[in-house]
Request: fold
Amino acid sequence: MTGETVYLLCGVWALVVLGIFIQAIRLSYRIEGRSPGLTNRSGFPRNAMMFHTVTNMNVARDQETQAMRRRMNRLLLIVLAGFALLWAGVSLAQSAE
Reply:
């Protein structure tokens, strides 16, 4: 594979993984809005409380919110798998040299 092709594939990979991660963050904000224990009442913007939503801490227990949480967890697993595949591809390319 030429260097240009590798850069192109890595760029596309980065955009895809970034898009999936942004979807997970948006879902986290929606879950926080539905969960009384995680609602932002300060009036100031804050970072997404992804640790709480991933681990189901103070998250509403209704079916729809839990379904959103499971979808967010799947998206985060896809991001993790994307990094693992990129690492495997780089390792394979280095061993082939």
Notes: The helical segments are 3-34, 50-55, 63-96. The CA atoms of residues 23 and 85 lie 20 Å apart. The mean pLDDT is 90.
